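As a warm-up, study this chain.
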Amino acid sequence: MIRKQEMLLQPIVAINIGSSGVRAIAADWDDRHKTFHILGSEFSNKHQSIEKGIPTNTSDVGFMLNETLKKLTNRVGRGELKNIFVCVGGRSLQSVRVQAHRLQRKSEIKDKMLNEMLLECKDKIELHTPTVGVVTVLPDKWIVDDNEFDERPKGQYGKDITLEATAFVMRKEFNQKIDDSLQRTPIVVYQRIVIPDADISALTTNEEREQGCAVINMGAQTTTLTIYRNERFVLTKVIPLGGYHVSHDIETLGIASDKAEGLKRKYGTLSLKKEDLDKGVRVQAAREGEEPIIVTFGNLSMIIASRIDEIMLPLLGEVEKADFRVEKIYLTGGASMLKGIVPYLRKKTSVPIDYGTHAEWLAHDTDDEYYQPTYTPLIGTLLIGQMFLEEHPDEEIKKDATFMGKFKNSIATLFGGDDE
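Now compare it with the structure written out below.
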């Protein structure tokens, strides 16, 4: 068993099973300034081992997880890293509302019953819809005899207890592949965090979350929309398209994949001036011996815009048709660094949209690399992990190698230990 007070002295580690690879980061929390000192990060990728956020080869992904953590451990140089939180997402991820209810003689509310209610939410969804698996359950509020509590009502007295929660689910086989990948490692994960929760935590303020806001995370192979209001997830939608597909469209001009990616990064823009439409660049053809291909900037911009419209317009439409006004959309993710994308999208929606930034959570001497939107889910995961450790400093963590043990343990430790 490991006491949480001991864990607070160690770095926090966030691991993101992203849309095409595994990235890990370690940081110390500066409680005085409420910022993270980044100690280092590592990335691992095996071609076609992860597709659209879902492991296709669990052995390879397990190896990637181990490799990334070992490299990070060596980089940090403080011995075994133990405060580990994993962030997941991927195609088919969505949020659903769920309730659990208990009646008892009026008495003190115990942890055991509250934990059982959380597990009931998971079981209720999976029994009702056997094709999905529950990734995590997040309480929205507890209601005790008509009194609402944002925090866990342990120690309160009552007889009529209701839990309203948000569960994140995905196709059962996808969820199982993530579980299998984690089980192929000795890593003990204290909490699984979903990308929408991490993004919202890193990018938005309490006021924005109360009034209504949205985050669009555009990754390599997936783009995730999260709409949030009144401290609740209203909608989560994942489109299995991202920056990779923009590059692939450029490849169809007859250009090799690495050249297409380079062309997108250097010359690709959605804010092209009229006088630059006919300008262009000569690019080596994909097939050996063929003449170089001349790509005009106008044609390049048109190819990019077509794919961005396909990805973004349905998501912006979801924001527009929400039954309340979304005050702000934040754009993040590695593929959001495409030149001119924010001005372009502003013309497509009446909702204010801007780049999201997690800069306020980084110490002033942080390397520029960590300000990039690629790191937003990791910074959000660090934040949630830090709260997890602070709220339960005296509890003990029991290591259970099975995923169900880890799931039950995460509920018990995040929301309170079991009663004896």
